[in-house]
Amino acid sequence: MDDQARIMQSIGGVSLAGHSVQGGMPLPPPHGHDGTDGDGRKQDIGDILHQIMTITDQSLDEAQAKKHGLNCHRMKPALFSVLCEIKEKTGLSIRGAQEEDPPDPQLMRLDNMLLAEGVAGPEKGGGSAAAAAAAAASGGAADNSIEHSDYRAKLTQIRQIYHTELEKYEQACNEFTTHVMNLLREQSRTRPISPKEIERMVGIIHRKFSSIQMQLKQSTCEAVMILRSRFLDARRKRRNFSKQATEILNEYFYSHLSNPYPSEEAKEELAKKCSITVSQVSNWFGNKRIRYKKNIGKFQEEANLYAAKTAVNAAHAAAAAVQNSQANSPTTPNSGSSGSFSLPNTGDMFLSMQSLNGESYQGAQVGANVQSQVGPPIRDSSSDVTTESCPCLANGGWQGARTPCSVISPTEGPGSVHSDTSN
DNA sequence: GAATATGATTGCCC
DNA sequence: GGGCAATCATATTC
């Protein structure tokens, strides 16, 4: 049985007989019939239904005209009433479908992420958390700010695109909703449409559009993730430390050659001085120790150079201290200075003591100064040098190599032992 | 463009 | 968790 026949049956058998009045209005007598003729009435209704069923096959103008004709048709109120009745019967199935969907967890995740990244929600300097976290993990302050601003600029771009698209979608959604509501309102003249139905239709439209919005949010999240990974990758890029930073680190390393293991405080101090992070200082010392140990000969020249520097600095400091003590106090001063570093250590103290003992600095003696720290004189400063030349390295490392190697200071007795970190 | 230097990462050990 | 050793990846030098 097709729809038309079903409606016909419904109208003929169920409803029309009892609905001569619609909404209190008396039905006008059927056109061309006396109103008591059942066959004529059926024919009339069949005619209306036929027109309704074929209305979509016609052109817009024709359909418009036909619609107007139907609206003015004498049987229209009766038909409307029947449709109301049918609707009443089918209403239950609609009601069942009206339950609200629970919030989509994926959508919530996307919303949260966009909010956290500063893409959605109020502007807050876009992804400052991510940028700051990455910045904290990196060293070079100047370069950071460049990359940081670059990251933020790109994030702002994403944010703008996202908001523009979102607005477009919302506008399109509103326009479409208005359009559909107008259509429904117009249709409500010929068929019963409850406000709830309109509401439901609006809900369906909104759901459709929100699924499109979800795609937009997903794409935006992906873009942010890509940007972020690129930003972090850029940070992974190796950049040489500044000459000054390397100088400072080398100075510390060679002046503590006997025990090149800076304490936490020393690392922090060095990091501050070199404008790098503590972990970079740790990396640097780790690399330096290994590379030095692997090829002492190669580093000998460098060691001499820094030892000379340290010696000169220490000599200056010691001379100043002596002068000071002679001028100010008859007692031996406890000079806090131990070379160019204000760090708490005495690693290079004996260099200054050597200077104090009258060993004037000469280029040729510098090597000996270094060796005096690391062990007996090295036969040759080239490839001939092995770890055997350094007692601290003789047993496979400074420490063998977990605990700091103790150094017998020339200023102390053979039995006295001190570690760089102990001070 | 190859060789070398160097900062970072990873896996393991203690 | 700190350090070592190997390795990677990039920068610099020649």
From TrEMBL:
Major location (coarse): nucleus
InterPro entries registered for this protein in UniProt: HD (IPR001356), Homeobox_CS (IPR017970), Homeodomain-like_sf (IPR009057), KN_HD (IPR008422), PBX_PBC_dom (IPR005542), TALE_homeobox (IPR050224)
Pfam family, one: Homeobox_KN
Compartments where found: Nucleus
Residue ranges: DNA binding: 234-296
Domain Homeobox as annotated: residue spans: 232-295
Signal peptide interval: none
SUPFAM superfamilies tied to this protein: Homeodomain-like (SSF46689)
MF terms in GO: DNA binding; DNA-binding transcription factor activity, RNA polymerase II-specific
UniProt similarity note: Belongs to the TALE/PBX homeobox family.
Protein name as it appears in the record: PBX homeobox 3
Lineage summary: Eukaryota, Metazoa, Chordata, Craniata, Vertebrata
